[in-house]
Design goal:
The structure is a homodimer.
Chain A lengths: L1 E7 L12 H11 L3 E8 L3 H14 L2 E5 L10 H9 L3 E3 L1 H13 L13 E3 L3 E3 L8 E8 L2 E8 L3 H19 L4 E10 L3 H12 L5 E8 L2 E10 L2 H19 L3 E3 L5 H11 L4 E5 L5 H7 L8 E7 L2 H8 L3 H7 L4 H15 L3 E7 L14 E7 L4 E7 L4 H20 L1
Parallel strand pairs in A: 1-2, 1-3, 3-8, 13-14, 13-15
Antiparallel strand pairs in A: 4-5, 6-7, 7-8, 9-11, 9-12, 10-11, 15-16, 16-17
Chain lengths: ~425, ~425
């Protein structure tokens, strides 16, 4: 069963505003086994709107239309849906009365054009809106002899969402064959996307009834595996089977089988092993600490650390000898190792984590290019150091570097 | 001139991910007087994709297609555009060579399916992509005897945006009738959105030919003032006139008249006054330092600092007396003041900045609720301390707190 969400409003076609209702509605539709196949954002022009609705009627079974139900000249959804489906509008007395009452209770005059909010499509069910003056409408109708479920919802999120939940979801549930969606999210660190796909595609392609989505960002991959079936157990089994095979193929690249973030996993293992962590960051400038402390309860395992942007602070906060920096440079395996060991000792943490590197755009040399990053982890017994060359701009290098640092802790503890 | 932006990728039809490239591309298209009339988000199904492209070709003149240019089986944009426009694909030798070189330089094997990234549409111009393996394509073509400008761009934002700027914008400018957009972005810290709008609406509503947009996020307001005219000077004058009046009304809430971020402004003033800064962060856990070090060249004025998540580290890295913490609590004016003074002394910075607070969800008390934040700034002569109660979840409180801390430095220096 395929759906399209149409969000109406010229403000969502500017550089500043995005439709957000659709994320909410998508989540709810998915639970009924309805897949959102298209989202369309269209402005207040009547012809554009009509065309978008016709296009949607031609390609999906469920059509959720949000916005354009207000009282102004720009609010044309009712008219456009009527035109596209060949349905008349009639002005409903009960709704006129309600609009008048509403204006009266707010002690506001009601302009004549407000009455267009009482226009109802032929055959539509009126959906009450406790949070605004624009009612919704529900149509169970046909278009070119196919059955179509069409919902008209108000645009403001605090009106749209409760109305969808209260009025549309139960009706959809009754109208649609019963399906259930099973879903798992696997997460993977530091594996390049192309390599991940090469490794995993031969596996997930065997499962035509399961949808696998790969989402990659700066060293983090999110793999979503989902399956919709009439039989909930069957859907769950298919997802679990594929997820297990993907997990096996991923080996220790996998850090989470249930969608948790890398920093959540790191904190989970720190708690489990009852150890503490401190950080000394140069090129990431606090990003690693900020990510860790984003998780509620981080203070149970994370002590804090230092942002050592200058050589002097590397010495002052982590006892890195000035001569060591002079001999090897601030961005070097030796200094990063000393930073990890130093911050560990100075904070009394079980584990000391350090990052140095050239984030760019300036600062690199021929032998030490922009994008070179060192991370080190000290536990009092041994100190591991790794280096990588990352591509991309300053932000990307810093994101990859913080990911690499957190993943090093994860691998040590897991 | 009407445009449609098509964002391709099933992940953008989930509840988790939204297309963001389109906001950027919309902004750039608007500068050329091109209005975005539709945005469509479509998944990786070949038939859906082809249909969406045909629909767009039927209703707009400029078509920006983003995503689906990678090497995987799901990357079907080239094929779908070819099908919709009736154009053949051919595999280009120079691109094959470049892909092989790229794989070699990364010392990675190149899977055979990577070669589909060398497929070019008949009549298309190849647009080089310095940030990834997928090149873009530019088509100046016809569909049902109308001229259509069609651009294929890679989906990852760090590839899409620079490629659009470098390769598409100049070509669009040459191909389209000349309009100019004048624009100014004013930025404001710590002023609530409703107050800003109450203050500014009576002014900007006088300018019907100038579009003013207010965008607020965690203590940061971005005011965009823009005007499109055939005459560039006229557009510029209108924007400057309105911007000046808004600036006057905003007074010292305004921190930037040209779109710079708060951290850029702080670094600018640190450089101008030739002073240095160090930070000691508790509840923000490194966010303030991470924001500052996000700006290239931050090391000229920012020394670093400490993330002092525990009481012991407040003492170890900023010499806050343990008795002071015991007497007043870690989240208090006294401790925050001592932190600012301590970090200043320990790092040798001209200015010491400190933040403490309860970010939640746990940790607050009746007198000290979640959302309570202290910031302090020490310069060796005096130390200012301020407190605020922020609403919202952990992330929001941390964002507001880091904004408040940076704004304190800005106000001191400006």
């Amino acid at each position: 069963m395929k759906a399209e969400i149409i969000a109406i409003g010229s403000e969502m076609l500017t550089p500043f505003r995005q439709d957000t209702n659709s994320l909410y509605v998508t989540e709810k539709l998915n639970t009924l086994g309805v897949v959102v196949a298209f989202k369309t954002i269209v402005g207040d022009r009547r012809k554009d709107l009509e065309g978008a609705i016709r296009t949607a009627l031609g390609r999906v079974d469920v059509l959720v239309i949000m916005g354009g139900l207000g009282p102004t000249e720009d609010d044309l959804t009712r008219e456009a849906v009527g035109e596209a489906l060949g349905l008349e509008l009639h002005r409903e007395d009960a709704l006129i009365e309600a609009l008048k009452q509403r204006a009266k209770s707010w002690a506001m005059p009601m302009p004549e054009n407000n009455l267009k909010q009482a226009d109802v499509l032929e055959g539509a069910l009126v959906l009450p809106n406790p949070n605004g003056s624009a009612v919704g409408q529900w149509l169970d109708t046909t278009y070119e002899s196919f059955r179509k479920l069409v919902m008209l919802l108000p645009g403001p999120p605090h009106e749209c969402k409760p109305l969808f939940d209260a009025e549309c979801l139960p009706r959809l549930k009754r109208a649609l064959p019963s399906y259930t969606m099973a879903k798992r999210t696997l997460r993977v660190a530091m594996l390049p996307e192309s390599q991940a796909d090469k490794l995993l595609a031969p596996i997930y392609q065997e499962y035509e009834d399961v949808e696998t989505t790969i989402l990659a960002h700066s060293g983090d991959i999110q793999l979503t595996v989902q399956c919709v079936k009439a039989d909930a157990d069957e859907a769950g089994e298919r997802v679990d089977e594929l997820a297990s095979r993907l997990e096996e193929a991923l080996g220790d690249w996998l850090y989470s089988s249930d969608g948790e973030s890398l920093e959540q996993i790191v904190l989970y293992y720190l708690g489990l092993r009852q150890v503490t962590l401190a950080t000394a960051e140069s090129c990431t400038g606090g990003m690693v600490a900020a990510r860790i402390t984003d998780v509620p309860g981080a203070s149970r395992s994370f002590l804090g650390g230092a942002v050592v942007y200058t050589n002097a602070l590397k010495t002052a906060f982590a006892d890195v000898p000035a001569e060591l920096i002079a001999a090897h440079g601030a961005v070097s395996a030796e200094v990063t190792k000393a930073l990890a060991e130093g911050i560990r000792k100075r904070t009394g943490a079980t584990l000391g984590l350090a990052v140095t590197g050239f984030a760019g755009p300036g600062g690199g040399t021929e032998t030490q290019p922009v994008g070179l990053v060192y991370v080190a982890l000290a536990d009092g017994q041994k100190t591991e150091v790794f280096d990588r060359n990352f591509r991309g701009d300053r932000l990307r290098v810093r994101e990859w570097a913080s990911q690499m640092a957190l993943d090093l802790v994860r691998r040590r503890l897991m």
